[in-house]
Write a structure and sequence with these properties.
Elements: H1 5-8, H2 19-43, H3 49-61, H4 65-73, H5 77-83, H6 86-105, H7 117-137, H8 145-156, H9 160-175, H10 181-201
Helix pairs in contact: 2-6, 2-7, 3-4, 3-9, 4-6, 5-6, 5-8, 7-10, 8-9
Length: 210
């Protein structure tokens, strides 16, 4: 019996992203995430990871969200450089810097007069999921908890997803000290939307460009 032609074909070699492709993906990804953070800040929601810590400190102190996010991520670059490599670290640094600037400056370019927390949670979750997916597919991240979870997975064998979940749960509990429970509940909805979007659209074997 002859073997089907499709099974005997040699798969094409993996392609690498060009510098322009990386640049537009990092810019678009950080723009989407910055819009999500602006929506959350408008109605008093928050997200997980280091961005969530920045939100908690922002609500507690009034310091700019972008400034806090940038500062909180500074200690994590050493982990990224040692464990994830120079390319990943540089792209992550660029993404975090852009996100910090966009989060602080974008509200000067547009204003939101009325926004329901449910709409902010769903739209923000989708924007977060899309932005993080753009960055992940171009070997970048938004630092902090992502870097630590990947580091612990490589060195201790801990599942990165479980570590990330533990960090996010800790942030939610911390948020209860400065954010009313109903806002925290809407934030949980945003996290569910984001993670569902990533789970559906980021599956192994579907993306073969580096």
């Amino acid at each position: 019996m002859s073997t089907p032609a499709a099974s005997s074909e040699t798969p094409p070699p993996l392609q690498r992203h060009t510098l322009f492709e990386d640049a537009q993906a990092i810019f678009t990804g950080t723009l989407f995430v910055s819009l999500a953070l602006i929506l959350f800040a408008q109605v008093g929601l928050l997200t997980g990871g280091t961005a969530g810590v920045a939100f908690v400190l922002h609500y507690a102190t009034g310091i700019g969200l972008g400034k806090l996010f940038f500062a909180i991520n500074l200690p994590f670059y050493w982990f990224a450089w040692r464990r994830m490599g120079r390319e990943f670290t540089l792209k992550t640094f660029i993404a975090i810097t852009l996100l910090s600037l966009m989060t602080d400056w974008s509200p000067q370019l547009f204003a939101i007069e009325r926004l329901h927390p449910a709409y902010a949670a769903v739209l923000g979750g989708l924007l977060l999921g899309s932005g993080c997916l753009f960055l992940a597919r171009h070997r970048a991240s938004l630092g902090g908890a992502t870097i630590v979870s990947l580091y612990l997975q490589q060195t201790r064998g801990w599942r990165a997803g479980k570590v990330q979940m533990g960090v996010d749960c800790s942030v939610v509990l911390l948020a209860l000290t400065v954010v009313e429970p109903s806002r925290v509940a809407w934030s949980v909805l945003a996290a569910v939307v984001m993670n569902l979007f990533i789970a559906v659209n980021h599956k192994p074997g579907r993306y073969a460009v580096l």
